[in-house]
Specification:
Helix content: under 10%
Radius of gyration: 18 Å
Strand content: over 45%
Structural class: mainly beta
Amino acid sequence: MTTSDTPVLRVAGRPVARYVTRPELPARLSPRPYLHPVTTLADTAVTELQPADHAHHLGVGVAVPDVEGHNFWGGRTFVRDQGPTELDNHGAQRHLGFQLRDPDGFVEELRWTAAGAELLRERRTVAATELTDSAWALDFTFSLTNVTAGALSIGSPATNGRPGAAYGGFFWRARKEDTSPDVLVPDAEPGTEGEERAHGSRADWVALVGSTWTLVFAGATERTREDPWFVRAGEYPGVGSSLAHTERLTVPPGETVVRRIVTVVADGRLDHAAAGALVRKAVSA
């Protein structure tokens, strides 16, 4: 059912994603709009919501663990020399309204608030595009503007002392199955691909290949492609783009950070050539 708070994206008349703008979630999960379920054209779900392993993983969206010390990711906060710590520092993303709504996408405005103040204003553009009779693409752009009087610093557990944990930005929590998905990247020698090769890389694209589905992620702008990938497959399946990989990202007052990720959602287990061809088609569309 489509309501003002839960638009449904459609491709060729088929529903492929539900967008929840006003989720009822505890503050500890850093409430924020999200896409879930996202499905293939054959109606296979390829997202998870509040899974048992990470209750703060909410389908597809934007989540940042450290904006000037405020947690917009959910769960515990990584504190240097202390580790994951429960803190009362969670922020929330609040839906303000849609500037545009169509069956295949929308443009939305959001407020990022914490401790009673607005830190960031976001413009989010999401579009669904048919690629083939068994694949479609989700085009997701977010623009974060610092609306405070001073600079804002964006960090991650990695910049706070936890190596390899540079998550924060666009994030897709994928479907967990009995077997971990395969991970593909372009231009890799046979047998050298996988989570270890993809994680932290600046590969043109990264693919998760599940039992009957494939997700292929690509940065669709030059600036987005400068951000390394955050990739998980063994512990849980998820892919994101890191805003703060080795250094904190400073956003001066009035300045805007823009990132665009295009994700191919396909039925079947795509091989390297098919994944690369589809993502090239999606990004150039």
